[in-house]
Amino acid sequence: MRAVLIPFALASVASSLSLLAEEGTEDTLSSESEAQQAREQTEEEHTSASSLTSESEATAMKVQVSTNASYDYDGPYTGRCLGELVRTYPVGGSNQQWSSTMHADAESWCNARSDCHGFMHFDISVSQSVNPNYCCHTGACGDWCGKPQFCMTATAASQVSVNNGWVAYLKPAVSAAATGDPHLQNVHGERFDLMRPGHHILINIPREERADTALLRVAAEAHLLGKGCGEIYFQNVTVTGSWAEAKHAGGYTFVSGSGAHAAPDWLSVGPVGLKVAHGHTITGIQYLNVYVRSLGRAGYPVGGLLGEDDHSQEAAPSAECLGKVQLNEDLGGHGAAKASLASASF
C-alpha cells in the first residue's frame, strides 16, 4: 500500500502578490509587471530549496547513464521532493499540459540517471482542492503543469515537503548482490560471471572517485579455488569510504570462514544498504556473498563491477586459464562448481 501525505499546513506560493478585487469581476493582477513578478517569484520559490553545492556534485549532475532500467514509482505524494535540478528542464515546457506521455518521458529521463530520485509537477486540480483561495492556479499551471522538476536528493515519503499544488513521484529503493564463484548482477540487471581472480572494486561512490576521497567503496579479493576458470570465490571483502568510517572506525572487513555461522545483518552505510553473507560448497570451500541495496538513494553515479563500470575484461577468462581447463578436461577432469555471488541494483 502506498502512503499518501496529507498536508496540514498550506503556504501560498505567491502570498506576497498584490491583488485587485473589484465587485462583479474576477481577481486580476494589477499590471503586466506584477504578472511578470509573479512568474519570477513562483519560479524562484520552486527552485531555491536545494542546489548543487560542490564541484563534485556539479560534475555528477552532468553524467547521464544509458540504461533500460525501469522502476515502479511511488506516489503521487502531495508536495515536493528534495534537491530539484535547478533551472534545467529536460522534459516538457511552459504552457504544456501534463499527460501520460509526459509522465512516461519523465520516468525515462529519471531512470537513465542513478543520481535522479524522482520528479514532481504542478497539478491544478490539487491546487484548487487544497487551497481554493490561491490567486494564481491558472498562471502557476501554465508555468509548471507541463514542466516537471527532477529530484536529485534521495527523498523518503516522510520528507516530501507540503507545497500548494505540487505532486511528487519517488523512485523506489532497490538492491544489488554478488554471490557464488562469483556470479554478479550489476545495477542494470546484467548478469555475468567473474572469471579473473584478484582485487576487484564492486561498488565505488561516486563513480571514478579515488579510494581516499570516496563516500563508499566495496572491494573484494577473489581467489581461484578450483580447476575451472569460473571456480573463483570471494575470500575477503572490505568496506571503506567516509560513509563507512562514520558508521565504524576503519570501515568493515569480512573474511570467509570468520563468523560463518552468524546471521548476516543489513548494514546502513550512508543511504545504502549492505549485507555480506557466508557460504560454502559441498566440498567445504568457504566464501562470501555480497548484497547491496538502495543504490538509487546514493545521490551520485555508482561505479564498480556492480555499478556502471565496464566488466567485459573481468568476465572473460584468461588464455592461461583456458589452457589449464582444456588440459584438465583432456585428463578426465570436471567443469566448474558452485561459486560466490555479487549483485547490485538501484
Assembly type of the chains comes to single chain
Q: How many structural domains?
A: 2
First-residue to last-residue Cα separation: 21 Å
- Mean pLDDT value: 74
Distinct helical segment count: 7
Order of helices and strands: EEHHEHEHHEEEEEEEHEEEEHE
Q: What's the shape?
A: elongated
What is the CATH C-level name of the largest domain? Alpha Beta
CATH architecture of the largest domain: 3-Layer(aba) Sandwich
Question: Would you summarize the structure shown here?
Answer:
Helices cover 20% and strands 26% of the residues.
Could you explain the architecture of this structure?
The chain has helices at residues 32-47, 55-62, 100-111, 124-130, 137-144, 242-247, 319-330, and strands at 19-20, 28-29, 74-78, 118-122, 149-151, 166-170, 175-185, 191-193, 198-205, 216-224, 232-240, 252-255, 267-269, 272-280, 286-293, 340-343. It has 7 helices and 16 strands. With 346 residues, it is α+β, with helices and mostly antiparallel strands. The strands form 4 sheets. Strands 7, 8, 13, 14, 15 and 16 form a 6-stranded mixed sheet that branches. A 4-stranded antiparallel sheet has the order 3-6-4-5. Strands 9-10-11-12 form a 4-stranded antiparallel sheet. It folds into 2 domains: 19-170, no CATH class; 175-343, Protein Transport Mog1p, Chain A, CATH 3.40.1000. The model is unreliable at 1-70 and 329-337 (pLDDT under 50). It is elongated and about 75 Å long.
